[in-house]
Design brief:
This protein is mostly helical. The chain has helices at 4-22, 26-45. The radius of gyration is 12 Å and the shape is flat.
C-alpha cells in the first residue's frame, strides 16, 4: 500500500493537469505548475521534509 503522502502527490498532479486544460488564465497556469511540481516532488520522495535553518 502506498503511503498517504504519495497519494496526496498523485492527487495534486492530476488536479494540476486537469486545471491546466480546463481554465485559461496566467494565474491558473502558475497555480497549476506549482501543484504539478509539488505533486511530482511528493511522489518521488514519499515524505515531507521540513527545511533546516
Amino acid at each position: 500500500m502506498m503511503n498517504k503522502v504519495r497519494v496526496i502527490g498523485i492527487i495534486l498532479l492530476v488536479v494540476g493537469i486537469i486545471i491546466q486544460f480546463t481554465m485559461e488564465n496566467d494565474l491558473i497556469d502558475f497555480i497549476s505548475a506549482v501543484g504539478i511540481g509539488v505533486g511530482i516532488e511528493l511522489i518521488m520522495t514519499g515524505k515531507v521534509v521540513k527545511p533546516s535553518m
